[in-house]
Amino acid sequence: MKANKLTAGHNLMWESSRMILPEHKEQLLKERRNQELFHMPQLTEEQLQEMDLIIQAAIKQNCSITITYAEKYGPAQFSGKIKKINSQEASLKVSNRHMVLTLPFHKILQIEKMEGAL
């Protein structure tokens, strides 16, 4: 049998470099990401009321909060002080020393009051 470039050990220059096209790699990554997308849990009315009370208290006392919110691939957290509530856009603006974050209400999973200042 005649050896060819697919015969193991006969194409040493290219044997270890099996290539994948960038388009194929991107498609595989996109499919993997879609499988890993975060699905937001449904919040109860009690949880929503509790978050509302914490927001009101944080504004009144000018204290910091930690917000857990939904990102594309999982929950994320941000700590800061509430700067603005926009009822028309249904969003909450929170800032700390480093950045400002505007979150739509529907992405908020949990809010906790923090002890101490940022």
From TrEMBL:
InterPro entries from the UniProt entry: YolD (IPR014962)
Superkingdom of the organism of origin: Bacteria
Protein name stated in the entry: YolD-like protein
Organism listed in the record: Lederbergia galactosidilytica
